[in-house]
Automatic annotation (TrEMBL):
InterPro entries, per database record: Depp_CoAkinase, P-loop_NTPase
EC number(s) on file: 2.7.1.24
Record keyword Ion transport present: no
Biological role stated in the UniProt entry: Catalyzes the phosphorylation of the 3'-hydroxyl group of dephosphocoenzyme A to form coenzyme A.
Residues at which ATP binds: 12-17
Subcellular compartments: Cytoplasm
Associated pathway: Cofactor biosynthesis; coenzyme A biosynthesis; CoA from (R)-pantothenate: step 5/5
Name under which the protein is recorded: Dephospho-CoA kinase
UniProt keyword annotation of Transmembrane helix present: no
GO molecular function: dephospho-CoA kinase activity
Pfam families, sorted: CoaE
Alphabetical UniProt keywords: ATP-binding, Coenzyme A biosynthesis, Cytoplasm, Kinase, Nucleotide-binding, Transferase
Species the sequence originates in: Neisseria montereyensis
Length: 207
């Protein structure tokens, strides 16, 4: 059985960069965001339930999910956000478990889950939490450079996520990301060597 590390961090912290560095080192990486998008893509498994609960109004003429419409609805009505999450999370959990089974032979793997801290049900899937941490100003600057989001929109997303302090309280390992990308990649390399040794040892004493 592979051990799993839950990788998390606020928007713009550098989580995707870290996930890519683990993948480059040959570590299996499961991405909860990719799973979530797949569930709501054309013919996605979440679509029938979304249509049932939110109606045809959040679909276009061709039957595709109108993401902007759904995002707007969820932004305006907090109870709709809860309803959507209650619908999505069991499907995401189940898909993660299916993917985990494919890597049963690996020493360990990484699950990239932005909402790990906010949703305790994900904790059951992992044996360790790694947090990518950077200053809030860095988060805003990096997201602004990466996308067309306004500062107020970035701050709104940050306010809806766990705080840095909450994340750090749950972290087993912290990857500070206040320097260069290369410095971050080097840190991932060191953590990877530690994980390999640790999880190999654990799998031997706990076969
Ligand atoms: P997240 O997945 O946590 O939202 P990303 O890994 O996508 O964050 O990083 C956000 C943006 O900041 C990306 O464009 C990424 O290339 C850039 N970035 C990440 N780390 C650094 C760094 N140390 N220095 C400069 N840019 C960075």
């Amino acid at each position: 059985m592979a051990y799993w590390v839950g990788l998390t961090g606020g928007i713009g912290s550098g989580k995707s960069q870290v996930a890519a560095a683990f993948a480059d080192a040959g570590v299996p990486v499961i991405d909860a965001d990719v799973i979530s998008r797949g569930l709501t893509a054309d013919n996605g498994k979440a679509l029938p339930e979304i249509r049932k609960q939110f109606g045809a109004g959040v679909f276009d003429q061709e039957g595709r999910l109108n993401r902007a419409q759904l995002r707007d609805l969820v932004f305006r009505r907090p109870e709709a956000k809860q309803q959507l999450e209650a619908l999505m999370f069991p499907l995401i959990l189940s898909e993660i478990k299916t993917q985990q089974q494919k890597y049963a032979q690996a020493v360990y793997g990484v699950i990239d889950i932005p909402l790990l801290i906010e949703r305790p049900e994900f904790m059951a899937l992992i044996s360790r939490v790694a947090v990518v941490d950077t200053s809030e100003q860095n988060q805003i600057d990096r997201v602004r450079r990466r996308s067309s989001l306004e500062d107020t929109e970035i701050r709104r997303i940050m306010a809806s996520q766990a705080s840095r302090k909450e994340r750090l309280l749950v972290a087993d390992d912290v990857l500070p990301n206040n320097g260069t990308v290369q410095a971050l990649v080097d840190k991932v390399g060191r953590l990877h060597r530690y994980y390999q040794a640790r999880f190999l040892y654990l799998s031997r004493v706990n076969p």
